[in-house]
Amino acid sequence: MRIDVVSIFPEYLEGLRLSLIGKAIDQGLLELGVHDLRAFTVDRHRTVDDTPYGGGAGMVMKAEPWALALERILDAAAAPGSLAPRDRLGEADEAAPADEAAAADAETADAVTAAGKPVLIVPSPAGPVFDQRTAEELAHADHLVFACGRYEGIDQRVLDWAQERFECRPMSIGDYVLNGGEVASMVMIEAVTRLIPGVIGNPESLAEESHEDGLLEYPIYTKPASWRGHEVPEVLLSGNHQAIARWRRDRRLERTAEVRPDLLARLDDLDRGDREALD
Ligand SMILES: N#Cc1c(-c2ccc3ccn(Cc4ccc(CN5CCCC5)cc4)c3c2)n[nH]c1N
């Protein structure tokens, strides 16, 4: 999978370089390009925003820099690749505009497959809420492009223009308001990329996670068995795998019923044992 992120704060995305995602990049499981939107501005002041038509508070991100940035990413995606994929985190804000655009061209060209339109994800408080199902769907994409807005958002005509060139997906990460799309993009990138085979060391650990099958996860414990008067549940020390599996399933049902009854309502495959655990 290839991921490109466009932002006026490319350094925000540095965190993606750490831990498992950084390792996946080093292993070639993932290519990541981060691009400074200001490198695609067309004036000496590198202007990315202006006042909203119709009045109102705040500023709106201008369309042209976004179109130029997205066109570069698209053109590079369509061109035959030659250079090895490189993670360019942290370089975006150092390159001069011409170098940055050309670098985006060359860097993005190298790995993006021709198959399928890139998916353009536009974080927005007005988007449908991103969830594990969305993460699983996006994990199958060849190329994800994240457009990180700031101010009051991006001129709507960018999304209208992008419709023919991308599969456009406005997306919210929850019912609260952030200051921009960078944190939301990192949340979605982490949730998606951890599902790519090989990124998480032990794929079994994906099996019983919260939301994987509609239930929250069970409580977890590690040594010591007795800690400050708090004991590990006996069943987990029993070695009885069937009893442990039942206990864990029961705890997942109880926790989901208590914390997220809305999720439980969606489940239609509860068996008799499940219903007994909930009574
Ligand atoms: N994902 C996600 C998000 C975001 C998010 C994502 C991207 C951007 C780009 C800019 N902002 C800030 C902002 C601030 C106020 C408003 C409302 N205004 C009223 C009149 C016109 C807009 C719109 C955006 C963003 C916020 N917030 N919460 C989520 N779950």
Question: Can you put this structure into words, describing what you see?
Answer:
The protein contains nine helices and nine strands. It is elongated, with a radius of gyration of 22 Å. It is an alpha/beta fold and 279 residues long. The protein has helices at residues 19-26, 63-78, 97-109, 132-138, 156-162, 182-193, 241-259, 261-266, 272-278; strands at residues 2-7, 31-36, 49-50, 60-61, 119-123, 143-147, 167-171, 226-227, 230-231. The strands form three sheets. Strands 2-1-6-5-7 form a five-stranded parallel beta sheet. A two-stranded antiparallel ribbon has the order 3-4. The site of ligand JCK has 18 residues, from loops.
Q: Quick gist of this model?
A:
By secondary structure, the protein is an alpha/beta fold. It is 34% helix and 13% strand. It has nine helices and nine strands.
